[in-house]
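for the recovery benchmark. C-alpha cells below, seq after
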C-alpha cells in the first residue's frame, strides 16, 4: 500500500488543532472521544495512515456524536503515525491492518463491557482494510468502509455484518469496478450492503479534502451523511 494517492494532502496536525482534553483509554488504546459515554450506541472511527489526531477526522467524530452516538477514535499506531518525511514502504510493515483488527476487537469488547448495546465501525483508507477484517467476527453491528486501501476478497467473503462501501471515482487502490464487485459478493452472501461511487473525487477525500475544493467538500459531506445514515439504520 504505497503511492501518491495514499499520502497526498496530509492533515495539519499541530498542538493548535488538537483537542487532547477528550482523551480516554479504551481497550488499551488512547482514544479521542466525542459524545456521551452513557450512550448505548457506539461508533469506532479508524483513521488512515496519518492517525487519530487528524483534525477533519475528529470533526467527523463530533458530527456522528451529535446524532446520539458515543464515538471513539483510537490511536492504532501507538504514537507512531505516518509522517510525510517517512518512507511508506518502511512504515507500513510495522503497522499492519491485521494488528489493527486485533486492537479494534479489544476496543469493541471494552465498549460492550461498559454497556454499549450496539457498536459500529467506520474505517478510512488503512482503516477501511482494518474494518473489513473486523467484520468477519460478527462482533460489531454495522461497518462502513471509506475509500479503502487494497481489500481482500477473502475478507469480504468472510464479512458477517451489514457493510457500506463509500468509494472515490479516482482511486488506484479501490477502483470503482472492484468496489461494485465486492458489493456483488456481499449480496450473494445475503449480507446487506450499500456501494456508492462518488464522482470526481480521489482516494482519501473524506478526511483529506482541501477546504477550497468546493466539489470535494460537498462530496465529503455527502459521504459523512451516508455513513451516519448507515449507522442510524443498523445501530438504532
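predicted aa per position
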Amino acid at each position: 500500500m504505497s503511492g501518491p494517492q495514499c499520502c497526498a494532502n496530509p492533515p495539519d496536525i499541530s498542538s493548535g488543532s488538537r483537542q487532547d482534553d477528550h482523551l480516554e483509554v479504551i481497550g488499551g488504546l488512547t482514544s479521542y472521544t466525542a459524545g456521551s459515554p452513557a450512550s448505548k450506541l457506539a461508533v469506532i472511527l479508524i483513521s488512515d495512515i496519518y492517525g487519530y489526531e487528524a483534525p477533519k477526522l475528529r470533526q467527523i467524530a463530533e458530527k456522528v456524536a451529535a446524532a446520539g452516538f458515543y464515538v471513539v477514535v483510537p490511536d492504532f499506531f501507538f504514537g507512531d503515525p505516518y509522517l510525510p518525511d517517512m518512507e511508506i514502504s518502511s512504515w507500513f510493515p510495522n503497522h499492519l491492518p491485521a494488528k489493527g483488527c486485533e486492537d479494534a476487537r479489544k476496543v469493541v469488547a471494552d465498549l460492550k463491557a461498559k454497556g454499549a448495546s450496539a457498536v459500529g465501525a467506520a474505517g478510512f483508507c488503512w482503516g477501511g482494510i482494518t474494518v473489513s477484517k473486523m467484520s468477519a467476527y460478527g462482533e460489531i453491528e454495522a461497518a462502513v468502509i471509506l475509500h479503502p486501501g487494497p481489500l481482500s476478497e477473502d475478507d469480504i467473503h468472510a464479512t458477517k455484518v451489514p457493510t457500506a462501501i463509500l468509494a472515490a471515482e479516482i482511486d488506484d487502490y479501490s477502483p470503482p469496478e472492484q468496489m461494485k464487485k465486492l458489493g456483488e459478493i456481499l449480496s450473494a452472501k445475503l449480507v446487506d450492503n450499500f456501494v456508492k461511487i462518488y464522482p470526481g473525487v480521489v482516494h482519501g477525500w473524506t478526511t483529506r479534502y482541501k477546504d477550497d475544493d468546493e466539489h470535494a467538500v460537498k462530496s465529503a459531506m455527502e459521504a459523512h451523511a451516508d455513513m451516519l445514515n448507515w449507522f442510524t439504520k443498523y445501530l438504532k
